[in-house]
Amino acid sequence: MNKKTQVLLKSFLILALPTVIEQLLETIVQYVDTAMVGHLGPNATATVSVSSTYSWLINSVYAAIAVGFLAFVARAVGEKNSIKTKDASMWAIVLVIVLGLVGMIITVAIADFIPVWMGAAKDIQHNAGLYFKIINLPMVFRVAIILFGAIIRATGDTKNPMLINLVVNIVNIILNYIFIYALEFGPIGAGIASAISYVIGGILMTLLLFNNQYFKLKEVKIKEYNFNPVVLKKCLAVGIPVMFTNVASCLGYVVATSFVSSMSTLTYAAHSIAITAETIFYIPGYGMQAATATMIGNSIGENNPLKTRKTMEISIAVIFSVMCVTGTLLYVFAKPMMALFTNNQKVIEIGTGLLKMVAFTEPIFGTSAVMDGIYNGLAKTKYPLIVELIAMWGIRIMGSFVMVRILNKGITEVWYCMIANNIIKAILLMIGLVILVKKSKNLQLK
């Protein structure tokens, strides 16, 4: 490894580590919620989990818009163009308010229908709908965390968003104990705690945005705000294909989960807890995804194609190595991980088997996440949409439908279809990158 590659690797790790830690902190909140609620019984777990796929869907839309802004701001930072960064931040503020309010209205309106659509047992439908309403009331603050956090990271500041997440997580854990146990609100208490945490996180992320040296929003008077439509158009040109990709993925999760939720409550609880338990082991993939996109965007802004390609190579090599370790850990600690969230032995037994199955594909899953980051940083976001449609809907959903509805198979076969989806997706994304590198001499944004 030559000196330039060593420097680039060091820069990548410095940028990626805080985002990985931040993802870890977010997962801890999810773990705490699931563990605290899980010990109340399978019905309580199902109450909180039945709407989780819809929450992923909603977050994925906002995260997609954030990708577009991240790619634009990262390139502008590389160009040292302060006008572009400031314009992007102004549009981000507008979208946080508008999209947050629209999202809140829609989610609250459909909350009572979601448990029914997911085939949840009648005795948990009311509380599941109420839980979903509560966590979506502070939607403006949730969008602020996602969108403001993305453009802040695009400037190279990954440390402060991580610290904000740390504060939010601590508050959430404390409030969980108060509302779930002390006040005996049960699973609804977990929703209240999460909602308050979102408000705090949104406020702190907004303050961080206004104090960021690249945006300098405190120096701009309201009458001087410049909403350049070209900036918004470029951000959305990247973000909209990502949005469709995320929607296709999350709707796939919704459909796949509906196959499982139609099974027994114990099976569904095992499935949802196993999904949660697995999360911490693929955190490096999503943590490095944002760092990869940022570094590639910066290098393109600097007009440095060699740095762009080296970043691609380093990010893939690092994530594959790291995920080999996490996959091994997941296999070894599958049963103890399940036991963290429930004391129901049948749920633990089912979930342990599922986790040991998926452990072997963790390196593939993590590599796919980083490759998504590469495409995002390059602003080449249309091809991943095609890949998602093929892998999710052609492999996972159709496969699960055949297994459950036609062949009357169970949860194990549904997870086999999920594993096949991950493998096919990784292969297709890698083929696309190889072709892209061969065809493009400079890997520049269009």
Can I get a quick summary?
With 446 residues, the protein is an all-alpha fold. 83% of the residues lie in helices and 0% in strands.
Task: Tell me what you see in this structure.
By secondary structure, the chain is mainly alpha-helical. It has one domain (3-439). It contains 18 helices and no strands. It has helices at 3-38, 42-49, 52-79, 82-110, 114-117, 122-136, 139-154, 159-182, 187-210, 229-261, 265-279, 283-301, 305-332, 334-341, 345-358, 362-378, 382-406, 411-439. Helix 1 packs antiparallel against helix 11 (265-279) and helix 2 crosses helix 11. It is globular. The model has no long low-confidence stretch (mean pLDDT 88).
Give structural attributes.
446 residues, mainly alpha, 18 helices, globular
In terms of topology, how is this protein built?
Layout: H1 3-38, H2 42-49, H3 52-79, H4 82-110, H5 114-117, H6 122-136, H7 139-154, H8 159-182, H9 187-210, H10 229-261, H11 265-279, H12 283-301, H13 305-332, H14 334-341, H15 345-358, H16 362-378, H17 382-406, H18 411-439
Helix pairs in contact: 1-8, 1-11, 1-12, 1-13, 2-6, 2-9, 2-11, 3-4, 3-7, 3-10, 3-12, 4-6, 4-7, 6-9, 7-9, 8-9, 10-17, 11-14, 11-15, 12-13, 12-16, 13-15, 13-16, 14-15, 15-18, 16-18, 17-18
